[in-house]
Each structure stands twice: as structure tokens, then as C-alpha cells.
Amino acid sequence: MSIVEDARQLAQGAMQGAMAKAVALAPDSWVPGGKPDPLIARQHGHVGKPVSRLDGPLKVSGTARFAAEFSFDNMVYGALVYSTIAKGRIVEIDTGEAEAAPGVVTVMTHRNAPRLNPPPVFLSNPKAAGGDTLPVMQDDRIHWNGEPVAVVLAQTQEQADHAASLIRVRYAEETALLGFEEAKARGTRQGLFMGPPLHNEIGEAEAALAAAPVKVDATYRTPRHNHNAIELHAVTVAWQGETLRVHDASQLVAHTAWSMAQIFGIDAAQVVITSPFVGGGFGGKCMWQHHILAAAAAKVAGRPVRLVLSREGVYRIVGGRSLTEQRVALGASPDGKLKALIHTGTTAKTADNVMPEPFIMPTRSAYAAETMLLDVQTVELDMLANTFMRAPGEAVGTFALESAIDELAEALAIDPIELRMRNDPEKDPISGLPFSSHNLAEAYRAGAERFGWGARAARPGAVRDGEWLVGMGCATGTYPYYRMPGGAARITLRSDGHATIDIAAHEMGMGTATAQTQVAADRLGLELDAITFNYGDSTLPGVVLAGGSQQTASIGASVIAAHHALVKELLKTAGNDSPLAGLEPDQVASRDGGLCKLDDPARYESYASILRRAQRDTICVEASPPQPLETMHWSMHSHCAMFCEVRVNAVTGEPRVSRFLGSFDCGRILNPKTASSQFRGGIIMGLGLALMEETLFDERNGRIMNPSLADYHVPVHMDVPDIDVIWTDIADPHTPMGAHGIGEIGITGTGAAIANAIYNATGKRVRDLPITLDKLL
Amino acid sequence: MTPFGYSRAQDVADAVRRGGEAGTMYLGGGTNLVDLMRETIERPTMLVDVTGLSRDITETPDGGLRIGAAARNTALAEDRRVRTRYPVLTRAIVAGASAQIRNMATVGGNLLQRTRCGYFYDDDGSRCNKRAPGQGCDAIEGFNRNHAILGASSACVAVHPSDMCVALAALDAVVHLESSAGPRVLRFTDFHRLPGDHPQIETMLQPGELITAIELPPLPFARRSTYRKVRDRSSYAFALVSVAAAIEIENGRVGAVRIALGGVAHKPWRASKAEAALRGQPANAASFAAAAEAELADARPLKDNGFKIALAKRAIVAVLETLA
Amino acid sequence: MAITINGDAVSVPDDPRVSLLDLLREDLRLTGTKKGCNQGACGACTVLVDGERILSCLALAVQYDGRAITTIEGLGAAGALHPLQQAFIEHDGFQCGYCTPGQICSAVAMVAEARRGVPSHVTGDLDAGAITLTHDELRERMSGNLCRCGAHNGIMAAIAETFAEAAE
After folding, report:
1. Dist. CA B290–CA B175, nearest whole Å
2. Which site among A155, A230, A318, A742 would you substitute to test the C interface, given the most C Cβ atoms closer than 10 Å to its Cβ?
3. Domain assignment of residue A572, given as a range
4. Quick one: which of A165, A650, C87, C129 has the fewest CB in 10 Å?
5. Is the ipTM reported for this complex over the cut 0.90?
6. Cβ atoms within 10 A of the Cβ of A609, count?
7. Is residue A295 part of a domain?
8. How many domains does chain A fold into?
9. In the UniProt record, does the keyword Phosphoprotein occur (chain C) (predicted)?
10. Nearest chain A Cα distance for residue B220, angstroms
11. Contact (Cβ atoms closer than 8 angstroms) between residue A255 and residue A545
12. Of A305, A343, A303, nearest to A326 (Cα)?
């Protein structure tokens, strides 16, 4: 089908307007998801059950092994030295004392590092994994304050750390561009995201704003953030002959294997990345310099290497979320209909990465405004490349947008939920595509009722409990449904009725292995203990990013494809003596450890019987799903309604969240237990974003000044109240299992819900995150 | 970490004999020193472990308490006598750090905590007069939201991070020291220094001198005392501002009063001006506010920390109102 | 002399720079104890020393000569889990699992502290004898263990259920 061929190109970056239009207009049945996944209708299987994590016993007993917990014989320990200037050249690097220090095996600098190709930057190729394109330790140039300038390998970590402290570097410093205001004054550039510009216009928004009877127009600022997964970034690497073996903490094993191969000029099959457990990712556990430096140093030393970044090291060389400055202007008629929606602003990136924080993303599909102007401008600073962090775009974009909606609601004297409902779009406001699933109103209805929204005092500062001012706020969150190309899965069915699913996917705590085991069990008609789900290994099929909340869809579609291939193979194998003889794949389904005719379940044969008769021990199939055209055919999004109660101390200004409820519309929930945790986890990171998180970037020298968990505050137990989560559980008819990925939705809307609650409590509108007590005094 | 030797002190005499050697430092719970050594900010060549020395908490003849310097923070906080007679001290200790750290940290070591200023901690990337005297201070024009509003100098604007010490400053504690020259005693409020031109010198300790005990005087009215800590995160965060106070009220008027502030200066800040302003005054909000004004009159804000002045005043008033 | 780790005598490392955490992880391959910051700011390295919780990253191993250390491996094993470990699974008190051993070790000692009457920042009456582990007491006492995945609610539920007699 030509449409699929075209789509392949499209997916590889050749975005064609005409193509998108063709897919939009194609009949549903031509498009993946056009026929609902049969699992959606299945009500009493494993899917939807609160199964406890299958890897739970390993994790609670400390026997789950993370990247830094694998060892090789003859292994040495690495330590990095980081630049202390933002831009310039290394004039002299004195490694003599370090080389002479006890236990030191190798000191690697740009002078003796092996020649390497620059990293392929993310999105430059479907398998590219690099945070930026900068060459790694190949010359004397310094590009940011904190760039690695030397690697020390020693017999012990203590020796390596000490020797690293003995290295002396002299720089020729050049003037770096570090100030956000200064950079803006020099001029901004159009932000591009995954190819196209971050720019949309419908009608004349500025004119409509000027003419609108009621309007709000304000600027919101969000700071830099760091992921701060508790596991430090680490690799344990060895060159085994010509093969590079990497124990990694990764959310993209296949991408990393391919990218490392490009960098070292070897075949992708010569790089094996495994990552059975990842101690938190959130967008941060992609490929950064420590992978490359550890592998290069291992080559120089001829020894396996363990390189665990210090916490400071994580801040120095693993990018975080960039800062944003956003204008949101809303014009409305007195009845609250949006006449104009303007969401524009600027974010900082580097010259060598492709990641402008795309804060207008949520606004594209949120409201049925008559006119819109959306735009992201960028400036390029001499800093560490920023990157994806949980809900890039939406996490901070919804803070600005949903704060503004709250401000408009007050200006209109309309309840903020009612205002949102009056502008709830019936189709995608930009593309005009129908929504695949859109039940925000139901999420609000259920959430408001359960939270007790009706008890909210509309007048700010009206509720006081002793020293504490109490307020309520709400906000909408949204995150797109993505499915990236490249998925593939292998199913190996044994004659004892056990199936193994192999896919190069990832488990960073999302519950993937558990939920996907449930899905596979239902799809194959097997019990949970008859399924083995293998992941986290670049030698397995598929190029599956655990990011963009797309892994659930990617795995789901891949396993559907593999299951289809398995059924075909089984029917062929079953032959003419089977009760299934003569049936086509579309006529059969899996049930109870075998296949049956869809409309005649009694026509059945078990997998074991089929394989036994064919004298086969196993059947093994591998398949890839069709290209993800569905996202061009429907407007596909998750939604949530967030409700927050805060208490702000009238004496000290201390803001504390006392209650929170998230009401989600994210398709069908595969596992309520792990899904609840995902939702809560996003909300808690959103609580941090709202109240305490900020990476301090000193614009005088480009240095991050709080590179520690003592100084970069993430929420502690005392900050986290009991968080209520509910969901519509309405299946999206156009996605595998009717599900959406849910890793990021929880952080969207949370910041604004908290900010709006703080306004309701105090009458103070804080538009600069984080909302610390000094802003509330 | 720079290589170093390690030995355990058998007794105080053994400790001070070895502690006088160049490059030697005493090691308590290690919760700050080990971290600073890992950051190469501290580079001792020998550690003398003094955690085996006295950790006893005993009554003094005059009705106070003597606390062995090796007592763990938790042990001090949970001591029945401390909870009853000096609740401000228990409250201050449990407001600090985390339970794990309080279990490790010694009382003596708590006094010797060094500042958490980010520029001080950035050994090779930032200028700091405390780390490298004469180098300059990157905090004065840098991120200084957490920094001092009282008693700072053009050389240093860092703050002392301890909570426990704020209570000790309020309680008129004394510090018992021992060196090869013999024992001596310092008032707690004289133990820490303001930065002046030599911010690298943080205490009045002589080289090799060992803290052996903290003594709390009998202070009957301290039964009515408390500690309030204001911070960004609800737990496990350093103070932006904290207040330790004890107050005696007779016939509606302030009698004896002790107030100390944390998070505002290079040392635990005894609020003598506020105390003076309060003595004999009616125990009401107006007096408390006037006292707070008096104490903060000399406060000097930096770029990011001006809010601390108002915050400190509010916190002082609120604490006194709680106790009144 | 030696350090006793989960009942086994282990000799003290020659290099006094070796932290208790690195002794466990690198020398003894007891990797259940985690390194999250190596600076006393996250709690992932929490172990028990003679029953008390400490941070093994800030502990020089040599200082613990003669002491008895219990790590997550000594608390329970897959197949013979400690009731709190089981409760963590039931209540989904973790996601990535990295802070989990520290949370569990911390909670075990936390309950002992409360039984002993050690007050916390949120304890109302310092003169009261026993501590009732209210939700606030639990949250405050566990605040030295960071979790970035956001499993806080599940952790609290697991602890409250396991130590119900001490909890409210």
C-alpha cells in the first residue's frame, strides 16, 4: 500500500503536508487502530487487575541489579574531571601527578583519547540517542562549564577520585553567552520540534485580543530543572574482542547501541547494551558523555571500566529541562467563550542540540478558541545541552496556560471549571482532526465531586485555619498519545504452553514488565506465569524509546503484530488434522492456552497439541507493527483534571499541599496498582516543580551552583499528602488495548493547580516558579 | 579524598596529644567532615576518631547538664531531662537534618559544621575566601538567597547551618575544651566567629584543641522554650530563618528572656538587642514586634535574601507569642 | 577486630577512605544498599548499625570496626521476605526500586526509635512517653529517604500496615 511507504518516509522526517492530509482523509480501516484491538472488549482477563509488580521481590530484597552492580574481571574505576569555564580552550592539562598517584591505570584527555565520531543527536536518525552533537574529548575546545576534560582510571574508586583531584588545567577563556536576557536582546530564532516549527496561527489573534471585552495578558517564568533520578548515572563497560558490552541505566537501549557504534565506527551488532533495571529515568537516562568516555577509556586502558557519576557529575554532564518565559494572553466574551488565545515565549537551548522546551504543545489541543497564536522562540547559550524531562513542553506549558485560564475565570467571575467546559473543543482546534478519545468533562465531573470542589470559596483569602490560609485550585493537564516507528517484538511459544516475549523495551519503574505480562497473557490466552517478558537488552527486537509516554503503545502494537504472525504460523503448523483446519488468521482468537474459532470457541486446539503434533519444541515469530499513521488520522491525547488544596502559612509564607486529587482520562488502565503509582509520581514531581525545584545556573560563568540533592530540593515524604487518583477508564478505541501511556500526564496541570490554589488561599498570583515562601510573604 | 591515616583516641589525653600534629583533624560522626573530604575541601592527613570519648549526659552540681561531646544528636534530643528542662534544644535538634544523620552526628561535631554555601562547596569552580583566603567571594554577587543578613563582611556572607547551635546559643551554654595546654571553657556565644576579614577561621578553637563537653546552665524558665524553623521544604532542609527562644513572664511583663536566630549569620546569632528591648516590657505583640525591629535594625540584605529580614521579624514575634 | 555484616565477620579495609557503602557494594558485592548521592542527602544508602539507622555513604568503614551492620540483604531475602518488604510489594511502595532498600531499612529502625520514645519535629508533647505513629509522624520520620518516582503514599501505607500496633 503506497500510503504505508509514504508514511515510512514521513516518519523519517520528510514531513509532507499533503501526506498528512491524505492520512487524515483516509478511511479508518486503512489506519492502524481503525479496527479496535479485540482486547478492549475483553473484560475478565488479566488486564485491568491490580497485579503487584512481578519484579517486586527482587527490588525489595535489594537483589535487582542496576548498572553499577555488574562487574567484570580486571575492572577499573573511573572518575571525571570537569571544566570550570564555559567557553574557551585548554591551554595546558597537567596529568603528571595524577598518573603517578597510587593505583592509577590510565589518564585520558583529548590528547590521548581515541578518535571518535561525534554523537548522532536525538531525532537525527530513528536510532540516534545523543543529547547533542558535540565531539567528546576530541580537541582542546570547551563548550560549557562542566564539560569533561579528563578521565582517570584506577584500581579503586577512592584512588580514581583522588587522582582526578590532582589534575591541573589551565584555560584560555573566551566570552561565553550565558545570560538569558542578553541572548534575547541579541535576537531569537524560531523553535523547531521534531522537524516543524513550534508555531501556529488561526485567524488574527492579536486583533481579536485587542477587541475582546474581557482579557488577561501576563508573563510566566519557569526555571531550569533536573531529573534527579535517585540512581546515579552509571555504566559498567568492557570490550570483549571487538564487541562493546555495556551495563547501562537506559531508557533507550537500541538507540544507544546504534549510536555508540556510530561514534566508535563499528557495526551496531558489536555493541550490546543491557539495562534490566533503571533507577528512575524521567527523560534523563539517555546517552550522555559518560557512556562514550567510559568506553573510550576502557579501550585506552585495555581494561573493563565502571564509571558512576557523582551527583555533581550528573548535573555537570546530563542535561535537564531548560528555562522558559511564556506570555499567555486570553481574550473572551462575557460568557467566557475564548476569542483569542495567545501563548508565545522564549526558551534557551544550545547550538548543538535539537530540544527547545516546547511549551505550546498543550495549548494546541486544549481550547476551542476562535483565534490562536502559538509560538516558541529560542536563544542559544553556552551551556550543557538541555533535554527532555518528564512531559517536556506540557509540564511547564500547562503551568502558564492553566494559570492564565484561572486568571480569566476570575476576571469573568465564572467558575474555572465551568470556563474550561465552555471552551472544551469538539475536535482538534489546530488540525481539525477528530479526537480519538476525549472525556475531559467526565474527568472534571468525577473529580470535582470527589474532591468537594463545591466547597471552594471563590473569593481569595477567605478561608483561614489558625496560622494557615487555605485555598483550592484546579487545572487541566494534557499529554499527547505518541507511537514512534521502529517497534518490533518476538514471541517464542514452547510446546509446554509457555510464551516468551522479547522486545528491547525498558523498565524504569513504570511497571512495564508487569503490565505487559498481563497484556501478553490475555492476548495469548495464557496465565501470567506462562509468560516471560524480556526487555532492556539491545539485542532484542525493536527500537523502542521509553519516552514520550509512547512505550506502552509501541510494545502493544508490536506484540499485536507478533501475535498475528504467531497465529498465522500456528495455523500453518496445525495442518489439516486440527479442528482449526481451514481457518484464516482473522477468524481465530487465542484462549485458554490455544486457538479457537472466533465465533465458535468450541473449535479449539491447544498450543501444546499443535506443537506436539508437528513435533516442534518451539515456534518463534518476530514482527513489526504498521507505521503510526493513527496520530495523523486522529487527534490523540490524554487528559486530566487536577484538584489541589494548599495551606499557606500567614506568618512565614510557607506553602504546603494538603490535599490533591488527579482525575484522569487516559484510555483503559492496564494495571490500577502500577498506574496509580505512575499518576501519583507525576503529581509529586509536579509538586516539586510548583514549590521547590530550580537548577541554579550562574549566568556569570555558566556554572550550576546547586548540584546536589541537599541544595536542589525534591519533595520529601513530609511534603507529600495522600494523593487521590481516579480515572474514567474509557478505552481509546484506536489504540492497542485501548490504553495510553501514562508516565507524563501526572506532572501536567499540577503546577497550575497548585499555583491557582495558592492564589485562592492568599490572593497572591505567583507567575514565577518555584513558588517559594519569599514570594508569598 | 586525599589519603589519610586513621586512629581512635583512647581518652582525651591521647586525643589531644595526637590532635596537635599538623594535618590532623578530629573525627566525630563524619556527617560533615567526610562529605567535605570527599569534595576535597578538607584534606587532613590524619583523622583521630573521638567518638569513643565521653558521650555521657550528666547532672552538674548547680543543676545544669553536662553533655559529652561524643553524644549523638539523637541521644541528646531524646534525653528526658533535656526534653523537660530545655525543650528548645530537643526541638532544634529534631528540626535538623534527617534521623539517620542525627543518629551519626556528635554534639561536638555539630558545632563544627561548615557552611552550606554553594560557592564554598564548589572547590574548583568558584571563588571563596573561606576555602581560599584572599580569593574573593562569588556569593556576594551570586546566588545568595540562603545567605547572611546580619554580621556579614565584604569577605564572606555565608551562614552557619546548625539548628542545635541556635538553641545552645539561646541557652547560655558553655563549651569545654581541652588541649595540650590544658582545659579551658568558652561561652557558647563566643565559640563561633563572625567572618570579618578571615572567614576561614570560624571558631575560637586553637589548633589541636578538642571539644570535650557542652554544659547547659540551670535555666528554670527554659522549660518554657521552643524552636521554630522556616524552610522551603517541610523537612530535611536547612533553615532560611530559625528562632530559638525561652521566656519568663511575671505579672504580664517579660522577665528573663533568651532569643537566638539561625540562618541569618555566620554564627548562631544571639539576639541580644531583642532581649534587651524586651526585658521589663509588657508581654504583648507590640513589645515583641519592637524587639524584633531592634534586632533586625542592622540587617543588610543581599540581592536575593531581603525577604529574610521580614521573615525573621515575623518568626520572632510568632515564637514569642507562642510562648507568652 | 572486624565488622559484622549480616552476621558475617568482615575485615576492615586497608584504605581508611573506603566508606561503609563502598565496602558493601564494591568489596562485598552487597549491592542492595544503594548510592544515590554519596553526600548524605538522599537516604538510599541507609543501613542499620546495632539496630540504628545511619547513612553508609558518610560512614568511613574503619570507624565501624566492632559494630554489627544489617543491610537489606540481612533483613529478608526473596522467598523469605520481611513483612515490611512484603507490604512494600502489596502497597506498591516503589517504582524503580532504587531508593527501596534504604526506605525499608530506615522504616525498620524508625519504628524502633518511636517505640523508644524518640521525639520528632512534629511530636506535640515532648513529655509524653510513647509515640503514636500518626501519618504526620511517619512522614516526618521518613523524610530522610528521598523517592523521586513518587511512591510516597505506598511507602507510608506499607509501613503503617506492617507496624499497625505502633501506628494510628
Report:
1. 32
2. A230
3. 485-627
4. C129
5. yes
6. 17
7. no
8. 2
9. no
10. 29
11. yes
12. A343
